[in-house]
Amino acid sequence: MTADQALATRTIGDAGPRVAFVHGLFGQGRNWTTVARRLADPADGSGHRVTLVDLPNHGHSPWTDRVDYVDMAEQLAELLAGFGEPVTLVGHSMGGKVSMQLALRHPELLRALVVVDISPSVYPETGGRTDDPDEEASPFAAFITAMRAIDLTGLATREDADAALRAAVPSDMVRAFLLQSLVRDGTTGWRWRLNLPLLARDLGELRGFPEPPPGAVFEGPVLWISGADSTYVLDEDRPRMEELFPRVRLVRVKNAGHWVHSEAPEVFTEAVRRFLAQVEG
């Protein structure tokens, strides 16, 4: 990987076992800053070097000409290989799928794996996963449409952007999350740190999970964290997860949905901290 293709990262903590966090769709490494600071604290998280990764087409990482899970896993593997030590990899949603692909293709790079509210399954691009009429339909296509519809040339303030997104993104938390990727372009304009045209075109690719190499299994410890109110992890997902990751342990977090680490940050961080203590002990 050349320098202009390298993934952008930020590391918190100067010593201790290495942990890397990978965000989901529309995210960036900075989304994990609060969790990272706690895990890096020797008095609280037992001291870790925590690397926060921006995936391609997000944050400060390069834009590409396609969205592909195997491509992203290979880029991430090259980054982790440069650490020269086993890593505990934590991935949410899209980042969880990237992390699972890496674990199945380069298990030697990992000490352990944490998969957050996603499974090695195919998800609907629109609609829901259950027959429950109250289940929220997949909102990501609508999010992209709403973000692309904002006239950045005429945008005055971030508050105006927030107002423009409100109809398509009613959750204050999710709007704030999306708007972290809206930044000033110079002194007068605005730009998205998201490659929205590409994500719109290839959104269908993100719903899938590429077939792993024949016979691939990750034998290391795996913590599978799900929001109890989320439909991204269903009972029907467990057989495939257990087939590919035989040492997996599922933890469901009460009163949390898909963004479990934002909706229940204390519970999430403590679950990860305890898991790290087990696998590093």
TrEMBL record:
Pfam families: Abhydrolase_1
InterPro entries (UniProt xref): AB_hydrolase_1 (IPR000073), AB_hydrolase_fold (IPR029058), Epox_hydrolase-like (IPR000639)
Ranges where the AB hydrolase-1 domain occurs: 17-265
SUPFAM superfamilies found in the cross-reference section: alpha/beta-Hydrolases (SSF53474)
Listed GO MF terms: carboxylic ester hydrolase activity
Claim: Amino-acid biosynthesis is one of the keywords in the record: no
Keyword Hydrolase: yes
Keyword terms, alphabetized: Hydrolase
PANTHER family in UniProt: PROTEIN ABHD11 (PTHR46118)
Name of the protein in its database record: Pimeloyl-ACP methyl ester carboxylesterase
